[in-house]
Amino acid sequence: LVAAHLYSAGGILFRGFDVGGAEAFREFAAGFGDPLLNYEFGSTPRSNVTKGVYTSTEYPAHQSIPLHNEQAYTLDWPMKIWFYSMIAAQTGGETPIADSREIYRRIPARIRDRFIEKKLMYVRNYGNGLDVEWSQVFNTEDESVVEAYCRAHNIECEWKDDGELRTRQICQAISRHPVTHDTVWFNQAHLFHISNLQPEVRETLLDVVDEEDLPRNVYYGDGS
């Protein structure tokens, strides 16, 4: 019944459930039959609370995070995501949701087709005080482990002269749901592209590093 509603509506709100803490939440979520995944190749700082359960993105309270598909900047992503508010925010705290099927339908076909044809190339530069350290993203201090992970997940990796890491990965712009077969807008181009930054932040970054060394950016799959 839950799955039927989820595939139809796209999301379900359980209200008034006294789950009783992170470990009880983990057991509740795992009870629906899907394994809880580790946060691998993450793009934002999060802390592991208990097995398969992480804090939300650890950003300052005054910052906002735009609507996005979870880990759509990779070729591997969770099919379901659970949210649990153990301590409700006193102000703000809203999580924006939308139907990615409808987003796809509303984007003009000429724009959709360009994204579908070219795909997207996400470029990330780790560390240097500007973004998450590669050791945190890959959960290791061993460069060979990073390289093996990248090979296994079709990620191009490059160790720069300063010892930091750059990765590139070509990913989908849209996806098709494996159960409903609906076509959905499925990417994080709007989050990764430098135009998403506030003008003063963008200008400061470009004063400090070249475009190729930006913490994150996105191009069409052909590099344009």
From TrEMBL:
InterPro entries: AlphaKG_dependent_hydroxylases (IPR050411), TauD-like_sf (IPR042098), TauD/TfdA-like (IPR003819). SUPFAM superfamilies: Clavaminate synthase-like (SSF51197). It comes from the Bacteria. Residues 4-222 form the TauD/TfdA-like domain. It comes from Pseudomonas amygdali pv. eriobotryae. This is SyrP-like protein. The keyword Hydrolase does not apply. Pfam families: TauD (PF02668). One of its GO terms (biological process) is antibiotic biosynthetic process. Transmembrane segments: none annotated.
